[in-house]
User: Which sequence fits this backbone?
């Protein structure tokens, strides 16, 4: 085979594989949406799930996923922000910084199930939080922290250095520069990254099996007192999320319509991930335009 | 406590090291009041590094070390006990590339004074107008103060940065090649501004442009390899330099 | 003349602000360090209890092929699961590696610009799909498909299904690292090769790929690491039999799948439970191994 032929064959193979990957994604999305959308109805999205008979919904699971996401982000964002700001603004180029960087790298490489086990051991058992939203949120926060640190560091590093110098020359404190000069500039990419990270949290299940648990107590959506056991926002109640539910109905539960419920729930999950992606892109562009364009701003 | 050897504002034996490399070598210079001093010299000669050390900007570079003294009214600014953040309020700085904050035109100016304690809206409005007028930008932007500073042209942005520096009433203004990224018309405006502003404060300007140094400055200092080669009255330095190296540099740049 | 050392209000204020900022960010970093120390400490202490308290032989755990955790003659050979984890992860990388590198080449070499605009979002979406969804699709599409392929000889669950599902899941990891590496290559390198009359494939094969080998291996190792730690998707399709797989079509288990299935079915403190923690410790250990390998590769890259 001469060089020209080899070149053509190789190019063909590369293009074939690229097309194959697009086809795989198309197939996955198509399959989930086609199979799942037919099962999605208002009733499916709002009614409670069944343990033994068909016709159950995913209402509590959907609520749990969203509420757990909120709790997780409340823990993750402030800590991740602080860690990322340290890495980009305070860390000196020395061994300690190298060590912290390694810590972040290791933490981000831990399998999520190990983080879940750690949560089981420390929060569920030792601290006595039990299978609860709070245990789950802490585990997910640990799982998500390294990403948040990295997003923050990158967003702050992308701010032109001249911005910081301008602040220094005005006699501002370093912290004032970080919060009032750098943060607004870093915000678009910070928000985009955070939304994408949130999407990842939303679909996570392995870290939750042993922390937020695989069951949900009967909920009373009229009771919003966080101290009541049936209240949806009681942080100490157990909470099965959408992703955990999909795993459970396929592995352990005995419902006749497991495949349909899974397909519907998967479709909801995938649609949520798509929405997170779209919002992240759209928002990043929106903020960027707002800052640079000659619109009014206060 | 002022003695005869201390300049009112100037440096004594000021050196800047990057690691072990001495980028600026024992500079003794005085910057007289209400005057413009131009720092000239080939790239890498240490003039910008020297300028940046005058308001302790080199504090922010981990590998940089500044020795010697910077005198300002009998106080050594390079003293470890002197608070860099406070002194920078008195020494404004403008860079080569315009770097307005990603905020509105108004906010760019009002930000500094508000941080330093001016709360009244009326007073802030006054400072904004005054600073923009002094930077010869008021007429161009008075109707669009709420717009983003990034919507301004490059020349306007640079004058906004000068106005921002003026907003906290500095006594000294450090300009690091303030016009080198601008078109000729904007450059002319910035130069006029420098001549206007020296009526009120000391200005130190780094420039690669000999004509500019000749036009705007009262004194000129020629730097080479971290040394201060010659420092004299601008007219004298350009017409009759004492040092051979200065002459060759000026001739080469004018030619 | 206001003194710069003086007692002016601004002095105390900016010092105070910087103190707040430093304290806050230092605490956050400290938390990260505490968390990682706690994870390693707790998992290690539980995981080692199997050998120290319960007297299970580490040799048996690592090399024993017999898994029978209950009863008088209990044996705790975890080799089937260790082997299962390695086999599916390596197979997944074997499939995803070439595919990912081709995808990266497509983006940067074959159709620069446009290729990236098409494939980049595809890769991002693939990495965004939750692992249980991959598991579910594997369960409902791949498993019956494999079963049908074998004419019903196999039930479809097994190593092949696990490896295929994992390969799609790690595709984005490898692709994005490979694409970044390709994009960082200086233009001159390609042009020099073309100037010598080399075809595009010769350039890719002889110049680009060898130059980027450490980065590409980094991507592949990180892909393997991700596959190794993935739990639910694999568990759903691998069949969960406690034996070393004899062929691609036999049912098997991985460390993660065993932990997933048994953690809540065993009582805390029992040897049956502790041995699961030993497997978790094994997962942690492998995480460190993967990171060390990646660091070594990066060091080679700098030379």
Assistant:
């Amino acid at each position: 085979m001469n060089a020209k032929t080899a070149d053509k064959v190789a190019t063909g193979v590369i293009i074939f594989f690229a097309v194959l990957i697009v086809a795989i994604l198309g197939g996955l999305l198509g399959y989930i949406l086609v199979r799942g959308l037919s099962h999605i109805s208002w009733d499916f999205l709002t009614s409670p799930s069944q343990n033994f008979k068909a016709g159950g919904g995913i209402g509590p699971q959907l609520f749990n996923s969203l509420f757990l996401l909120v709790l997780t982000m409340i823990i993750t964002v402030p800590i991740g922000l602080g860690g990322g700001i340290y890495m980009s603004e305070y860390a000196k180029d020395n061994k300690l910084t190298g060590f912290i960087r390694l810590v972040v790298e290791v933490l981000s490489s831990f399998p999520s199930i190990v983080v879940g086990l750690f949560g089981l051991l420390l929060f569920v058992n030792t601290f006595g939080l039990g299978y609860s939203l709070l245990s789950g949120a802490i585990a997910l926060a640990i799982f998500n922290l390294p990403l948040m640190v990295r997003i923050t560091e990158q967003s702050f590093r992308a701010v032109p250095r001249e911005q910081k110098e301008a602040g220094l020359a005005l006699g501002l404190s370093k912290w004032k520069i970080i919060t009032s000069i750098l943060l607004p500039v870093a915000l678009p990419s910070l928000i985009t990254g955070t939304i994408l990270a949130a999407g990842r949290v939303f679909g996570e299940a392995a870290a939750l099996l042993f922390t937020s648990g695989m069951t949900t107590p009967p909920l009373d959506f009229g009771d919003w007192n966080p101290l009541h056991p049936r209240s949806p926002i009681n942080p100490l109640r157990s909470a099965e999320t959408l992703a955990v539910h999909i795993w459970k109905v396929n592995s352990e539960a005995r419902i006749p319509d497991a495949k349909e419920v899974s397909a519907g729930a998967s479709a909801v999950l995938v649609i949520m991930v798509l929405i997170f992606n779209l919002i992240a892109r759209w928002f990043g562009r929106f903020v960027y335009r707002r800052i640079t364009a000659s619109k009014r701003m206060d | 406590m002022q003695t005869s050897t201390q300049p009112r504002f100037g440096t004594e034996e000021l050196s800047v090291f990057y690691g072990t490399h001495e980028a600026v070598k024992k500079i003794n210079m005085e910057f007289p009041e209400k005057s413009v001093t131009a720092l000239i010299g080939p790239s890498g000669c240490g003039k910008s590094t020297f300028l940046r050390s005058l308001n302790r900007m080199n504090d922010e570079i981990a590998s940089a070390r500044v020795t010697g003294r910077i005198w300002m009214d009998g106080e050594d600014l390079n003293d470890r006990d002197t608070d860099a953040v406070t002194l920078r309020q008195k020494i404004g700085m403008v860079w080569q590339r315009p770097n307005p904050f990603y905020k509105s035109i108004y906010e760019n100016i009002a930000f500094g004074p508000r941080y330093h304690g001016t709360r009244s809206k009326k007073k802030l409005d006054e400072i904004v107008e005054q600073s923009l007028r002094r930077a010869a930008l008021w007429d161009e932007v008075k109707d669009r103060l709420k717009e983003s500073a990034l919507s301004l042209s490059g020349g306007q942005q640079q004058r906004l940065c000068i106005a921002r520096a003026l907003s906290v009433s500095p006594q000294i203004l450090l300009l690091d090649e303030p016009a080198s990224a601008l078109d000729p018309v904007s450059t002319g405006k910035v130069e006029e501004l420098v001549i206007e502003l020296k009526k009120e404060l000391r200005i130190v300007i780094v420039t690669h442009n000999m004509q500019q140094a000749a036009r705007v400055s009262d004194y000129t200092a020629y730097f080479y390899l971290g040394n201060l080669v010659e420092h004299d009255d601008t007219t004298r330095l350009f017409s009759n330099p004492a040092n051979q190296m200065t002459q060759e540099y000026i001739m080469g740049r004018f030619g | 003349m206001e003194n710069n050392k003086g007692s002016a209000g601004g002095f105390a204020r900016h010092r105070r602000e910087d103190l707040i900022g430093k304290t806050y960010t230092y605490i956050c970093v400290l938390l990260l360090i505490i968390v990682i120390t706690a994870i390693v400490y707790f998992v290690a202490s539980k995981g080692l209890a199997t050998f120290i308290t319960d007297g299970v032989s580490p040799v048996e755990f690592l090399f024993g092929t017999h898994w029978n955790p209950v009863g008088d003659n209990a044996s705790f050979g975890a080799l089937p699961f260790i082997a299962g984890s390695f086999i599916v992860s390596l197979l997944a990388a074997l499939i995803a590696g070439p595919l990912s590198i081709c995808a990266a080449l497509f983006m940067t070499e074959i159709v620069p610009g446009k290729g990236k605009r098409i494939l980049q979002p595809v890769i991002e979406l693939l990495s965004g799909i939750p692992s249980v969804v991959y598991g579910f699709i594997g369960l409902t599409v791949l498993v019956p498909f494999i079963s049908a392929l074998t004419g019903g000889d196999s039930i479809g669950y097994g190593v092949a299904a696990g490896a295929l599902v994992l390969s799609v899941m790690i595709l984005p990891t490898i692709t994005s690292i490979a694409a970044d590496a390709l994009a960082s290559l200086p233009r001159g390198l390609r042009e020099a090769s073309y100037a010598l009359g080399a075809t595009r494939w010769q350039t890719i094969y002889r110049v680009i790929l060898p130059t980027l080998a450490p980065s590409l291996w980094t991507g592949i190792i990180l892909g393997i690491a991700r596959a190794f730690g993935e739990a639910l998707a694999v568990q759903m399709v691998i069949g969960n039999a406690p034996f070393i797989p004899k062929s691609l079509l036999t049912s098997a288990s991985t460390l993660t799948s065993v932990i997933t299935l048994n953690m809540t079915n065993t009582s805390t403190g029992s040897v049956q439970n502790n041995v699961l923690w030993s497997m978790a410790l094994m997962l942690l250990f492998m995480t460190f191994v993967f990171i060390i390998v990646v660091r070594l590769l990066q060091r080679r890259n700098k030379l």
